[in-house]
Amino acid sequence: MLHYNGSRWQEIPGNSFPTPLPTLRDVWGNGSNDVFVVGDSGTVLHFDGSNWQSMHSGTSMSLRFVGGTGPKDVYVTGDFGTLLHHDGYGWSPMRSGMAGIFSGIWHVPSSNAMFFGGYDIQLTDSRWSSRGVIYRMSRVR
Questions:
Q1: Contact assessment for residue 47 and residue 1, using Cβ atoms and an 8 Å cutoff
Q2: 65 secondary structure, DSSP code
Q3: How many Cα atoms sit within 13 Å of 58 on the Cβ side?
Q4: Which end of the chain is more exposed for a tag (fewer CB within 10 A), N or C?
């Protein structure tokens, strides 16, 4: 894994990364001391400003997208309808009723998150609603 320090790329020591490091698919950060990376085999890595740590996601599915509004409100999507939520303490699975691959996340404060894929679904105040079929949607954050 590499980090750009403003003038050049530097390799980050990987002693806290899983070995071998799986394919990493997306990165999202709330700030320089709160960065999440997701990837294959349920991989979730977190950077706290000085160290990277592997987090237990509770799944072995490939995780594809990550987004949120802050350190206590982070969502991850993955294969076969996998949805996870991080509340600042741990990851919890969410049931969406979808079986496909979500291709993006759009999240705004006030308990409202949208997940894009074969279907567009919305989570508002802990309730799911379908917004119809989306055949092509570029990633929105």
A1: no
A2: E
A3: 12
A4: C
